[in-house]
Amino acid sequence: MADQAHRADEQAAALIGALTARGETVAAAESLTAGLVCATLARVPGASAALRGGLVVYATELKTALAGVDAALLAEHGAVHPEVAAQLAEGARERCGATWGLGLTGVAGPSPQDGVEPGTVHVGLVGPGTRTVRTLALSGDRDLIRTRSVQAAFALLGEHLT
Question: Are 106 and 145 in contact (CB under 8 A)?
C-alpha cells in the first residue's frame, strides 16, 4: 500500500508541475475518494498555483446539491454510473472555476452499492475540448481501491496535459 501511495504522490507532483507550467488549474468532485484526490495534490509544495479546490460528495443527494449532477440521472441509474462521473467533473470545474475538472464515483467496498460490485469506479475528466470517462474494475481492500482510483484520475488528467 505504501508503494501505491508513493506512486500517487509522484503523479501528483508531475501534475502540479505540468499544470503550473501551462497556467492551468484543476478541481475535483469526489465520492468514493472523499477528498483524497485534493489531499494528495495539496501535499505537493506549490500546489496552490494549480489546485483550485474540491467537493466531497459522498452522500448521493450532495452530488446534486453541490456538484449539479442531474437528480433524474441519479434516480434512474444510481450514484455509480459513467455519466455521474462526467457530471461531477463538470460541476467541479464550473463551481471551482478550474481549467480541468475531475469526477470520481464508485464502490470501495466491502459490500456492493445499489447492485454495483466493489472495485467498480468511474473517473470523469472535463476540460478544454475534453469530456471523457474511464471505467475501472479494481481489486483490493477499500484503501487500495481508493488509492488506485486517485492514481487513475491522475493518469487520465496527465494524458491530456502531454
Answer: yes
Handedness of CA 152, 59, 61, 76 (dihedral sign): positive
Q: Are 13 and 40 in contact (CB under 8 A)?
A: no
| 54, 28 contact by CB (below 8 A) | yes
DSSP string for residues in 3-51:
HHHHHHHHHHHHHHHHHHHHT--EEEEESTTTTHHHHHHHTSTTGGGTE
* Cut 0.70: pTM above it: yes
- What pLDDT digit, counting tens, does each position of 89-137 carry? 999 999 999 999 999 999 999 999 989 999 999 999 999 999 999 999 9
What's the CA gap between 75 and 51, in Å, rounded?
31
DSSP 117: P
Q: Is 91 exposed, middle or buried (CB count within 10 Å of its CB: 0-12, 13-18, 19+)?
A: buried
What distance in Å separates the CA atoms of residue 88 and residue 71, rounded to the nearest whole number?
Answer: 12
